[in-house]
Amino acid sequence: MECKYFEKLKDYNYGDLLAETDYWIILLAPDQRNLGTCVIALKRFEGDLSELKDEEWLEFSKIVKKLEYALKKAFNSTMFNWGCLMNSSYRKDPPDPHVHWHMIPRYKEKTEFKGLIFEDPCFGSSTMKTKGGIRKVAEDVRIKIIKEIKDNFEI
């Protein structure tokens, strides 16, 4: 899938393209500590969540339902954390915030995918203070994760 907005968003390093809707792009996040972690980025450049239009909120709600379903079906996720965290945008001078959401699947049990084990040691708590940096997976595994999500994501 070719996304004309994806090139503009590469500087934000949100991840690999999964899908595109009228107002959002859905990407597999670079950090895969929690299998299937995604970023959902607004296509237009907006710095404030309060400035989202009604139609953007409506479409976002549909993405939430369909993406959660896809991750439960693909990887047996237990639950999901959603966050709109734009803190790193303010490390730049001048700040460059862009509305986007982090969708972090949470797993009560260890999860195996393509020979890799994914654990969620702070299940039931916030992942905000998880130490250990990000978990990148090999490109061939990322491709398989993307395929698994797409096979279950009807957008």
UniProtKB/TrEMBL annotation:
A motif (Histidine triad motif) lies at residues 98-102. PROSITE patterns: HIT_2. Pfam families: HIT. One of its GO terms (molecular function) is catalytic activity. It comes from the Archaea. InterPro entries: AP-4-A_phosphorylase (IPR052908), HIT-like (IPR011146), HIT-like_sf (IPR036265). Residues 5-113 form the HIT domain. This is HIT domain-containing protein. It comes from Methanobacterium bryantii.
